[in-house]
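JOB MANIFEST
job_type = single_chain_structure
chain_count = 1
residues = 327
[input]
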Amino acid sequence: MKTIAIAAVLAAMLAAPAQAQTAMRVTDLMPDVQAFEQKSKGLPAEAQVALFRQMIVARHPEVFQPQIVPLSGADYDAALNRRIAEILADLPRRAARMQKAHDILLASLPEYLAAFRAKFPDLGASVPVYLTLSLDSFTGEQRPVNGTFTLLLGLDSIAASDVPLDSAHLAPLVEHELFHLYHFRKIDPFRTVAAGDGMPLWFWIWAEGFATYAERVLNPGLSEQQILLSPVDLRSALAPHMPHLTRKLLGDMDSADGTLYAEFLSGDPADAARLHKGLPARSGYFIGYEIVADAARTQSLASLSSLTGPRLEALVRAELRKLAKDS
């Protein structure tokens, strides 16, 4: 494991209190991945999986947990072995893009953090980051790791995506997850959720829309399509379907069903085609973005980011009704 302390930029560049100007703590799994690649050459597939478990998973068990890398099946250990085998089979195709994504992110993280703190100076004093392998679970994510909300960047998933690998195009991905981290630190949405239960659909529509809107604030030069990470113009594609989509969301707002989550918020086009009757993926991101954009006309982002519970639910419900009426 290699943990790198990246110093924050000069306080004069940031609109943040002095105590917030501390290091970004980056835990970098890439050196272990490179060592694994060298040692695993020529080994049969089963032996490669065992070596990966020894050299990667056993050294970083905190990021190979069900709440971070969710897998289907009652036997998580067996499911993890299967997923590792799938990733390793595709690793040669991804290796060059993984390395490039890693190098760009490691160099650019201080710049991303500085830009974020300039808009959101109350982010907090410490930003833990993992450059990890998500085993195709996420490109970016934020979850409690060792009790602290942590930014997780999945190099394998980024390499497999069609995101251009340069600092400008990776910035929205990182800033989206940074905003989630900022937002969840303020409201700690999971503290009242019992083990095994999930947050309701309305919360995720709000949270993903909010982070997407924050990307737009941080990157005013990018198009809406670039911010929404969609290969199609979601505004045009979804316009004829908004009455149906908003009514469906209003009816299912309180559901924590994973299938509904995938229908509206999965970035996988296959999920959209299977569950969403041919509509493009990430429709929930666009709807949430529209909700936050309208709410931000009369409230600051700081005040909106503190909303939670019944007040927030009422706002989301009112905005959905407004969208349904205006569509």
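[summary]
The chain has two domains: 2-187, 201-326.
The radius of gyration is 20 Å.
exit_status = 0
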